[in-house]
Amino acid sequence: MVASPAFSVAGKRVVVVGAARSGVAAAELLVRRGARVTLTDMRPTCDAAEPLRAQGVALELGGHDPATLAGADLIVVSPGVSLRQPAFALAAARGVETIGEIELASRWLNGRIIAVTGTKGKSTTVTLIGRMLEAGGGHVLVGGNIGVPLSAQVDASTAGTLHVVEVSSFQLETTTTLRPWIALWINLADDHLDRHADLDEYAAAKARIFANQGPDDFAVINADDPMVMRWSRNIAARTVAFSPSGRLADGYMADGGWIVRCTATSTDRLVPVSAVELAGAHMLGNVVAAVAVAATAGAATPAMTQALHGFRGLEHVMEPVATRAGVRFVNDSKATNVEAARRSIESFDRGVVAIVGGRFKGGDLRALREPLAARGRSVVAIGEAAPLVVEALAGVVPVVTAGSMREAVGLAYQAAMPDGVVLLAPACASFDWFADYAERGRAFKQEVERL
Question: Is residue 418 reached through a cis peptide bond, with omega within 30 degrees of 0 on the bond before it?
C-alpha cells in the first residue's frame, strides 16, 4: 500500500469523536498533519486532556454538539461510537465525510497492510502473524484493535513495513478505501447484536475487509465456516483457504502432526503441531490461520516454527491463573460472546465450573447447554445478564448467581472442589461492572490470588 498523495487535512476542521486510545491517536496524528482538531467525548473527563491541549487539540467533553459535527470538514469516529446518533445524520446531510480511525491512518501508510477480522481469535492470530513475520526479519508493526492504534504507526511506516492490524466490525464499517494486501477472515458467529441490527449486518461489516482488494491481493478465508464462505463470494482478491478441522483439498490445515499446505499434487509440511504451546483445542485453528497468512506473506517455515516456541497465549485468553487444592483457575475474560465461551468450555474434558455473564450483546446462551451437559459441573451467573444465564442454562447444571467477582470466585471454587476447573468465560461484555474485559480478568485473578 502506498500513501495517498491526494489526501490532506492541512487547514481543515476535523472533529474526532471518542476520546479512547484510538481517538487520541487520531487527534494527535491529525494535528501533526496540519488539521484544526476538536476531540469530543460523551464523558466529562479525558485522561489525556492536558497533553492534547498542549498539542493544540480543542476538547468538547460531556456530549457531542451537533453544530460542531455539522461544521466540520471531516469527522473521524472511534469504533466505540455508534453512527446512529442524530448528530451524524445532520452532518451527513450537510455533506460531511465520516470515516473511522483505521481508514484515516491507512490513507497515510507507506507499508503494506495485513488485516485480520473475525468473531473469535483475532488478537491471538494477529500476535502470532506478527511473531512469525518478525522472526523472518521483517519490519513489522502490530496493532489496530489490539495494542497500538494504527494512527500511532503512521510516522514509522516505510515502504518495507508490514502492518499487521486487528480490525473489528465497528472499525470496518467506517472504511471506504482501506485495501489490505492480505486480508484474513477467521470466523463468524453471533456477536455485537446489541449494535448491529442482525447477523447479516454484522457479516456485511466484516466483509468490507475484502471490498477494495484487487487481483494482486490475497483473501485468506475459513473454508469450514459457511457464513465466511457465503460473504467471501465474488471478491477480486486471490483466495487462500484454511481449515481448522483439517478437511481441505487445497489450502492450509493440520494433518498427521503437521500444519501443511495441500495442493492437488503435493502436501508440504510447514510447522509441527508439537510446536504449538497454546491451551485449548480451538487455538490450533488460529495457528493454522496464522501460518496461512505468514506463508502467503513469504515467511520461511523455520521462522514460523520459531515464533511458536514459548508463546502460550495472551493475557485474558485461556490464561492459566493458578491451581488451588486441586482446582485449576483459567481466565478467558476475552470470551465476550457466546461462541467464544462455548469454545472455552469445550477445551476441557470435565469438571468445568463456568463464570458466565456481564452485559449481554446478543446471541443464544442456550448454545452453552450442550458443552456444559458434557463437561460442566455448575455455572455461576454474574452481572446484568445473570437472569438470562439462569433462564438459558438452568436444568443442565446447577446455576447460582453472584453479586461480585469475589463472591463468584468463592462460589465457583467450592463447586469445583476437589478436582475441577473454574473458568471465567463470560459470553458477555464487561461494561456493567468493569471498564473492559482486561479489568474484569484482572479482578478474577486478584480474587483467585486471595484464595
Answer: yes
pLDDT in tens, 347-387: 999 999 999 999 998 889 999 999 999 999 999 999 999 99
What's the confidence (pLDDT) of residue 166?
A: 96
Q: Which of 285, 356, 293, 291 is nearest to 119 (CA)?
A: 285
Which pairing describes strands 161-166 and 112-117: parallel, antiparallel, or unpaired?
parallel
Cα separation, 94 vs 303, whole angstroms: 52
Q: What is the pLDDT of residue 190?
A: 66
The C-alpha cell 489525556 sits at: 48
Spatial neighbors of 50 by CB under 8 A, at least 6 apart, are none
Read off the pLDDT of residues 332-347 as tens digits, 9 standing for 90 and up: 999 999 989 999 999 9
**CATH numbers and ranges of domains, the chain:** 13-101 (3.40.50.720), 109-308 (3.40.1190.10), 319-450 (3.90.190.20)
Phi, psi of 30 (to 5 degrees): -65, -40
Q: What is the pTM of this model?
A: 0.85
Kindly tell me the burial class for residue 433, based on how many C-beta atoms sit within 10 Å of its own C-beta (0-12, 13-18, 19 or more).
middle
Q: For residues 77 and 182, what is the distance between their CA atoms, to the nearest angstrom?
A: 25
Q: Report pLDDT digits (tens) over 83-128.
A: 888 888 899 999 999 999 999 999 999 999 999 999 888 999 999 9
C-alpha cell read off for 173 = 464499517
Grid coordinates given for 73: 470538514
Q: What angle do CA 122, 288, 425 make, to 5 degrees?
A: 45
Beta-strand relationship, 182-185 and 161-166: unpaired
Cα distance between residue 330 and residue 312, in whole Å: 13
Name the H helices within 195-255: 199-207, 226-231
Q: Are 296 and 238 in contact (CB under 8 A)?
A: no
